[in-house]
Specification:
CATH class of the largest domain: Alpha Beta
Number of strands: 27
Distance between the termini: 85 Å
Helix content: 25-40%
CATH superfamily of the largest domain: Ribonuclease Z/Hydroxyacylglutathione hydrolase-like
Strand content: 25-35%
Number of domains: 3
CATH architecture of the largest domain: 4-Layer Sandwich
Structural class: alpha/beta
Shape: globular
Strand order of the largest sheet: 8-7-6-4-3-1-21-22
């Protein structure tokens, strides 16, 4: 071997465009040289509060589209929307063959017809078929899931075998009688699996404890204070509502505060971590709560550190699942341990239990594991489970969307960043709605809109108006005195202008907007969208 010209090992890249870091958007690219295939192409249904008016969220396909000359095929694991729903949008840009089992393709065909895409090449595959596509040979294997005809994919590449389980659970007695292909799983283990991409959707503390609960839950607070006193810990309270309720409950005798347990936060910070307890608001992931600010590294006085134990001591109220999930994921990323009502890392019955995940690892015996499908906490839980059953940490590749893994016959390393993101679909518009428009929609939904129209002459004097219309802020007919007050403030602001200033309708509109916003914010602490319409006579 020439030391100046070392031989470069061929490598395969695995690039998740979605599904690693959230539930939905599942899409994984497998790339060798200038060829690639995709596993699944799913969408995500948006949170109406976060994305008002948005119909769907789809992955950013730009990397795959840029490689369209070498884009060989899409292989589907099953027919759920979070695995097939974005295909119509991909196929508009790249007409590649799509492989799936009969039920999966049947469901997909209906969707494609809705999008006027009837000339797509749909190719039926069945368990244990061998399909050669460029440099890849793909074999579907039967798995069980909450939808029939689900499969995992054995992808043989020039550097080794990749097994993508799809969504699965190991159900020995499924309703349709189609049991998982245990025999083939074991054969794979004997033959050698280079990378397993496996479905991840499934107390004593030595350091600081941060516990979030409802400010009104006095009995829970009493338990915390009593336990802190027993184990020689001090407690600081973070959150105005929590501090107020503790004070009132103690004064009225509903709460017994052990002597010297409660101390100011600044004093608590001087103690060793194993003597600190922080009692906080934010168990429901409320945007401006103390815990949410901590999880975003934006709290003025508390920074989450590795070794912290965060306890969410409240059940999640229906509707708050997404906000709570975001906080939990952010806390994990900062290095904290988190205890909450669902620490089993199982989100629905169609997915693997911890024992199923252990079994899959034991049977297939992969050299490397990439946890797939789920939010960060699910991926991390799967990674920790793999470490517990003996897979060395350096062989567990914990990645999220846009982080690739480059694998050779003898090595694996994380690479990236690849272009990823959430593309928003609104009606027939794809990708034309951005953060600014979403924020405006959220404000409209939360605080409404006020439109102010007026006509001014060339000197800037009001000739007609101002006329004020409101939607979603106040009911006009029942608040005429308020609207008259707003009109008066607008007139005063315009009259106070320097008459020597040149007339600029944009500047006049900005002055009207600022005047209305200032008045509304001071009076109501609300921030509606203000639309000034200034016309010149």
């Amino acid at each position: 071997m020439d030391p100046e010209h070392p031989v470069v090992e061929p490598a395969v890249r695995l690039i998740p465009l979605g599904g690693l870091g959230e539930i939905g958007l599942n899409m994984m690219l497998v790339e060798f040289a200038d060829e690639l295939i995709a596993v699944d192409c799913g969408l995500m249904f948006p949170d109406a509060d976060e994305m008002p008016g948005i119909d769907y969220v789809i992955p950013d396909f730009s990397y795959a589209i840029a490689k369209r000359d070498g884009f060989r095929a899409v292989f589907l694991t099953h027919g759920h929307e979070d695995h097939v729903g974005a295909l119509p949008y991909l196929l508009r840009e790249a007409r590649v063959p799509v492989y799936g089992t009969p039920l999966t393709l049947g469901l997909l065909a209906e969707k494609l017809r809705e999008h006027d895409l009837e000339d797509v090449e749909l190719r039926v595959m069945r368990p244990r078929d061998r399909i050669e596509v460029g440099s890849f040979r793909v074999e579907p294997l039967r798995v069980t899931h909450s939808i029939a005809d689900g499969i995992g994919l054995v992808i043989e590449t020039p550097v080794g075998t990749i097994f993508h389980t799809g969504d699965f659970k190991l159900d020995p007695t499924p309703v349709d009688g189609e049991a998982p292909d245990y025999q083939r799983f074991e054969e794979l283990g004997h033959q050698g699996v280079l990378v397993l991409c496996s479905d991840s959707t499934f107390v004593s503390a030595k350091g600081r404890i941060i516990l979030a609960t409802f400010a009104s839950h006095i009995h829970r607070i009493q338990h915390v204070l009593s336990l802190a006193a027993r184990f020689d810990r001090k407690v600081a309270i973070v959150g105005m509502s929590l501090a107020r309720n503790v004070r009132v409950a103690a004064e009225l005798g509903y709460l017994h505060v052990p002597s010297d347990v409660l101390i100011p936060l600044e004093d608590l910070a001087r103690l060793p971590a194993d003597r600190q307890v922080i009692l906080s608001t934010g168990s429901q992931g409320e945007p401006n709560s103390a815990l949410s600010l901590m999880s975003a590294a934006e709290h003025k006085h508390v920074q989450i550190e590795r070794g912290d134990l965060v306890i969410l001591s409240a059940r999640v109220i229906p509707g708050n699942e997404r906000t709570v999930g975001r906080v939990i994921n952010a806390l994990y990323r900062l290095g904290a341990e988190v205890l909450y009502e669902d620490n089993a890392f199982v989100h629905v019955s169609g997915h693997a239990s911890q024992e199923d995940l252990k079994t899959m690892l034991a049977v297939t015996r992969p050299r490397y594991l990439i946890p797939v499908h789920g939010e960060y906490r699910h991926l991390l839980g799967h990674a920790r489970l793999a470490a517990q059953v003996g897979l060395p940490p350096e062989r567990i590749l914990l990645i999220e969307d846009g982080m690739g893994v480059e694998v050779t016959k003898t090595s694996a390393r994380v690479i990236g960043k690849f272009p990823t993101g959430r593309v928003l679909v609104d009606g027939k518009g794809v990708g034309d709605i951005g953060a600014v428009v979403l924020r405006d929609r959220q404000i409209l939904a939360e605080d409404g809109v006020i439109a102010v129209s007026l006509v001014v002459d060339r000197a800037g004097r009001i000739v007609a108006g101002p006329e004020i219309a409101s939607r979603g802020f106040v009911y006009v007919r029942e608040n005429e005195s308020l609207l008259d007050e707003l009109k008066s403030h607008v007139r005063e602001a315009l009259d106070a202008r320097d008459p020597a200033e040149p007339i600029d309708r944009e500047q006049l509109g900005a002055l009207v907007r600022t005047t209305i916003r200032h008045f509304i914010n001071q009076r109501f602490q609300r921030k509606p969208v203000v639309l000034p319409i200034v016309m010149e006579a």
